[in-house]
Amino acid sequence: MIKLKNIEKVYRTSTIETLALNEINLEVGKGEFLSIMGPSGCGKSTLLNIMGLLDEPSKGEITVDNETIRDFSDKKLAHFRNQKLGFIFQSYHLINDLPVLDNVELPLLYRSASANERTQLATEALQKVGLSNRVKHYPTQLSGGQKQRVAIARAIVGRPEIILADEPTGNLDSAMGNEIMDILINLNKNDGTTIVMVTHDENMAKKTNRLVRLFDGTQVM
């Protein structure tokens, strides 16, 4: 589903050049659950952002679902991302002024879905994560674990083939973290969703199909 070839990412300012990723070659198979680990500042989130087409590499080639991304226009890239990818962030990125249902519907606003269809899909996504009784609540009325469940529902509402999760259990206690992992594992096993997850937690990484480690921007295993 994802193929990275000779990926390099360099950040430049007027006085310094920082090599964030160096010669990354990685393939993620359809239906795989891959975790990425490494110390802080090693390039994990940068790599995930490049996989998610949120950032461009300085060098190298990205292929997602057999589409080479290099020549995509901004409009085509945004449409492709909306159709193929779902994102889960450590800090949830929910809109506090919107109720849960509206937060989950957000990705569908960029599609040609009717209001009724958006509501139906969002309701189904919330049922999947066990929050069908919270549709009218606001994010400020939810616990951290519930917020992350809403974020997962938002990620899956458009039925993407790939989910990219950046520290999805990082702000949660171990019990709630395990519940979130169970949801992701079920999405992977039951729905066949391809998942790439950045994590600092070795125990969470062991629950995935494969582990990739980064150190100073380089893949070490």
What can be said about this structure in brief?
With 221 residues, the protein is an alpha/beta fold. The protein has helices at 44-51, 74-84, 100-105, 115-128, 144-156, 174-191, 202-205; strands at 2-12, 17-28, 33-37, 59-64, 67-68, 85-89, 162-166, 194-198, 210-215, 218-219.
What this model shows, in words?
- With 221 residues, the chain is α/β, with parallel strands linked by helices.
- The chain has a single domain, classed as P-loop containing nucleotide triphosphate hydrolases (Rossmann fold).
- Helices cover 33% and strands 27% of the residues.
- The protein has seven helices and ten strands.
- β9 and β10 (218-219) form a beta hairpin.
- The radius of gyration is 17 Å and the shape is globular.
- The mean pLDDT is 94.
Question: Main attributes?
Answer:
single chain; 221 residues; alpha/beta; Rossmann fold; six-stranded mixed β-sheet; four-stranded antiparallel β-sheet; 10 strands; 33% helix; 27% strand
The CATH homologous superfamily is called P-loop containing nucleotide triphosphate hydrolases
State the share of residues found in helices, binned by percent.
25-40%
Question: What's the CATH C level?
Answer: Alpha Beta
The helix-strand sequence is EEEHEEHEHHHEHEHEE
Write down the overall geometry: globular
Low-confidence stretches: none
Mean pLDDT: 94
In the CATH hierarchy, what is the architecture at level 2?
3-Layer(aba) Sandwich
The main sheet orders its strands as 6-7-8-3-9-10
Distance between the termini: 20 Å
Structural class label: alpha/beta
Q: Tell me the radius of gyration.
A: 17 Å
Q: What's the total number of strands?
A: 10
What is the count of distinct domains?
A: 1
Sheet of most strands? 6 strands, mixed
- Helix count from the secondary structure assignment: 7
CATH level 3 topology: Rossmann fold
Estimate the strand proportion. Answer: 25-35%
